[in-house]
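Hi there,

I know you've been waiting on this one. I reran it after we fixed the sequence typo, so this is the corrected version. Both the input and the resulting structure follow.
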Amino acid sequence: VITDPIFMCGVTVANYLSVPFVFFLRGLPCDLHYKASQCPDPLSYAPRTFTFNSDRMTFFQRVENALVSFLELWYCDSYYRDAVKFSSEVLQRDVSLLDLLNSASLWLLRFDFVFEYARPVMPNMVFVGGINCVEKK
């Protein structure tokens, strides 16, 4: 199953049918695509979305980065609460958000590595940049 994990429908169906699934995505909120695939994502180096920090941060920017990271956890839990509840009912077992996401066979990331901060990724993560790019006029 090729799916986009934003709404979790494809993930739930693939887990229910016990078939492998592939994520095709631009990115998940709260850097879940890195957390679910167990990529190293240190708060002192990798800036969080909407903080406008670079990979070279001052102490206060690192504190801000940590606070935003903790707020992201609360935000993502509330955003995906209904989807996880529905998945638990369908799969007839308690599942968490990361349980659903980390069983992906392949992650096709629709962004280019050069536009992101250099960080290690897992072998099942493939960058396919340029898929959604429109030619400039």
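Quick highlight: The mean pLDDT is 83.

Best,
R. S.
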